[in-house]
Specification:
By secondary structure, this protein is mostly helical. It has one domain: Amino acid/polyamine transporter I (Up-down Bundle), CATH 1.20.1740.10. The chain has 20 helices and no strands. The longest helix has 32 residues.
């Protein structure tokens, strides 16, 4: 009888290596989409955390920043389009990585509808339609879906160039907002209350999970490892740069919002940035609208990019249907791009077509946040297992201080994010909706069921693609001067 986890060499199509560190850094910053993230989730975060929203963002950003360094270390050993999923497979084992593949798929799939919904409504508001009918929202969401598909399907180099262009506009708007806010710092309220310690930690902890959707995305450079010209050198650094830049953006934006706009107004605003501009900076209103749309565009196609590369890697390993691994003439996995966008579009339209789905946005956002935090928790577990199971390799690459630093960082990420996930299940129903815990648990049970099914069929269909098959072995990269 064949080995249940048989690793057979299988001829795979190659992704095209075309990205440099500058491209990866731009992708990482733009994927987080700070302007869009504030506009789309700002009101919900204020409703949950109040004026302690800054603390929620900072506290959840800390383990994410540490995770970005862990990603750098893991990328140097296992660069791969599957990133987190592949690391789990190589470091811990098939069953673990198969369950992790479900978590990753749910994290990014549920992250796309919360982008499409505000994208459609913001676009219609820009053209003067303030209270659009459902059909107009669906049509506009469809146009956004088509735009994202076009940018992605024409190749990673086109995606990077368009992203850099949109990112420049977004960065300019943040700079203008910071300058305006600094020059017109009105004494509407004591500025020190912006940094006042939280009075209700339960709301802050729930907001931390929601805020995970606005501080993640920097990990895109890890999923672009096979498309990097230096797969063991550049991926990871782009993520660190992206994570640090985004936290800096939020430290500029949120104090200005909280200082200038009353809390009740922010909590019930459809777009906190536009609300701020109307109140404090009318000349910037149109600029911010354009910036929000540019940020939305980048967030939409780059979130889909992450999911498409993960699905491509899973399909290549026969964890997902083989069709998701087929590449077009631009070396892009066509169906891995089209299918998630189509599903997200269906969910978006469903919210406006069926009345019982009208309040879906907080539920979808909360679910995405839970599984995004869960993904990084599993990456912390991957890093812990890497330090132990690959200790000989770690000793050769890292000093004793570096090994203990990595071990401590991984333990801290696992404990922090694990504690946060448990508290979210306890307090999430109170702040988000009574069904959020049931939805999350149902998806987790479905993931266990999928794992059992994969174990049942694995003997005939599991095919692995290791570094040597992808010409990314340590020896090959060392010969190219890319292995450090």
């Amino acid at each position: 009888m064949a080995n249940r986890h048989q690793n057979r060499v299988f001829p795979v199509q190659r992704l095209r290596p075309a990205l440099k560190l500058l491209d990866l850094s731009a992708l990482s910053v733009s994927s987080v989409a700070p302007i869009f993230s504030v506009a789309a989730t700002g009101a919900l975060l204020v409703q949950v955390a109040g004026d302690a929203v800054i603390w929620a963002i900072i506290l959840v950003a800390l383990p994410f920043l540490v995770s970005s360094w862990l990603f750098l270390v893991l990328n140097r050993s296992f660069p791969h389009a599957g990133a987190s999923y592949h690391w789990g497979r190589r470091i811990i084992g098939w069953d673990y990585s198969n369950f992790q593949s479900w978590i990753i798929s749910m994290a990014y799939l549920w992250s796309i509808p919360p982008i499409l919904i505000p994208a459609a409504t913001l676009t219609l508001s820009v053209v003067g339609i303030r209270q659009p009918r459902a059909v107009w929202i669906c049509v506009t969401a469809g146009l956004w879906t088509a735009l994202a598909a076009i940018v992605l399907l024409y190749g990673v180099k086109v995606t990077a160039r368009v992203t850099r262009l949109f990112l420049a506009g977004e960065a300019m708007s943040v700079m203008l907002m910071g300058i305006w806010g600094g020059l017109t710092w009105r004494h509407v309220r004591d500025p020190f209350t912006v940094w006042r310690p939280p009075s209700h930690w339960s709301g802050v902890l729930v907001a931390m999970v929601l805020a995970a959707t606005i501080v993640d995305g920097w990990e895109i450079d890890s999923y672009a490892a096979e498309e990097s010209v230096k797969p063991r050198a550049a991926p990871g650094w782009g993520g660190i740069i992206g994570a640090a830049m985004v936290v800096l953006y939020y430290l500029v934006i949120w104090p200005i919002l909280l200082h200038e706009v009353p809390m009740g107004t922010l909590a019930h605003s459809p777009d906190v940035l536009i609300t701020w501009s109307h109140r404090a900076a009318p000349p910037l209103a149109d600029i911010l609208r354009v910036a929000v749309l540019a940020s939305t565009a980048g967030s939409l196609w780059l979130t889909t990019y992450i999911l498409s590369r993960a699905l491509y890697a899973m399909a290549r390993d026969r964890v997902m249907p083989r069709g998701l691994g087929a590449l077009n003439r631009h070396q892009v996995p066509t169906w891995a791009v089209v299918v998630p966008l189509a599903l997200a579009f269906t969910v978006t339209c469903g919210q406006f077509v069926w009345p019982f789905l009208h309040h879906l946005f907080p539920l979808v956002l909360g679910t995405a946040g839970f599984f995004l935090v869960g993904e990084f928790w599993l990456d912390g577990v991957n890093a812990l297992a890497f330090v132990w199971r690959f200790r000989d390799e770690v000793r050769m690459k890292m000093s004793r201080y570096g090994r203990w630093t990595m071990l401590s960082a991984a333990v801290w990420v696992v404990l922090t994010l694990g504690f946060l996930e448990v508290l979210f299940l306890v307090w999430g129903p109170h702040y988000i909706g009574s069904g959020i815990d049931q939805v999350v648990l149902l998806i987790l049970v479905a993931g266990v069921g999928r794992l059992a099914w994969l174990k049942y069929r694995s003997a005939q269909t599991m095919v692995s693609a290791f570094e040597k098959e992808l010409n990314l072995s340590a020896e090959a990269c060392q010969a190219q001067g890319e292995y450090r």
